[in-house]
Specification:
By secondary structure, this protein is of the alpha/beta class. The chain has a single domain (about 45-215), classed as 3-Layer(aba) Sandwich (Glutaredoxin). It has helices at about 95-100, 105-125, 135-145, 160-165, 205-215; strands spanning about 60-65, 70, 80-85, 125-135, 150-155, 170, 175-180, 180-185, 190-195. The longest helix has 17 residues, at about 105-125. About 40% of the residues are buried. InterPro entries: Peroxiredoxin_BCP/PrxQ, Redoxin, Thioredoxin-like_sf, Thioredoxin_domain. This is Thioredoxin domain-containing protein. Belongs to the peroxiredoxin family. Prx5 subfamily.
Length: about 220
């Protein structure tokens, strides 16, 4: 994939600065960016994820927010990975140009949808839930703690997953971001892809409904 650019350590616009030392992170207790405008442009299916269904995931490791590394190809049983462009930082001003990009806004609502549905997803047989973006691990650790996410976030700052899976991406302020999507993985193989995802806060419900249907028809 040509022209991909690794995310800079900080690309927050007018955001609060996030320290590289996670122990020094500070943020308000109130949740940030948990809603989105009703008139956001809807993303269209450009076919950029069509190749993913039934793909066997090649081996690569991504750093997780718990300090461990995760190789998606080595996961047994049923897993769900949802991808998102970037979560906003506490105090960050969301600009009109970001809102104007179809599918860009709503990363925190998407993550929170999986937080709220985590127990039901596990009840449907999901062993692992991961969120993934090209933001770095300290940034993701702050988002995980602030939003009380009961699962780990994976950093593809190195673009390993983007390149290995040829994921749909877009450029914003000279940074490569993953388009919003989610994948159901069974024993290292992608069995279902949800792309595009809209509205973002219904991402987990889409996955849940598909798993329920699959379970009923099994």
């Amino acid at each position: 994939m040509i022209g991909l650019k690794r995310p800079s350590r900080l690309f927050l616009g007018s955001a609060t600065k996030i320290s590289r030392n996670y122990k020094q992170l500070s943020f308000p207790r109130s949740m940030a960016h948990t809603s989105f405008p009703a008139d956001l442009p809807k993303p269209e299916d450009d076919g950029a994820a069509n190749h993913l269904t039934n793909m066997s995931i090649p081996s690569f490791s991504l750093p997780a927010t718990n300090g461990k590394s995760v190789d998606l190809s080595a996961l047994s049983d049923l897993s769900v990975v949802f991808c998102y462009p970037r979560t906003g930082a506490p105090g960050e001003t969301i600009t009109d140009d970001w809102n104007a990009i179809p599918g860009a806004r709503g990363c925190t609502p998407q993550a929170c949808s999986f937080r709220d549905a985590a127990a039901e997803l596990r009840g449907l047989g999901v062993t692992h839930i991961y969120g993934a973006s090209t933001q770095d691990t300290p940034y993701q650790q702050e988002a995980k703690e602030r939003n009380h996410l009961p699962f780990e976030l994976l950093s593809d700052e190195s673009l390993r997953m983007v390149k290995a899976l040829r994921l749909p991406t877009f450029e914003w302020k000279e940074v490569t971001l993953i388009k919003r999507m989610s994948m159901v993985i069974k024993d290292g193989k992608i069995v279902k892809v949800f792309y595009p995802v809209f509205p973002p806060d219904q991402s987990a419900n889409e996955v849940k409904k598909w798993l329920q249907t699959a379970k009923e028809s099994a």
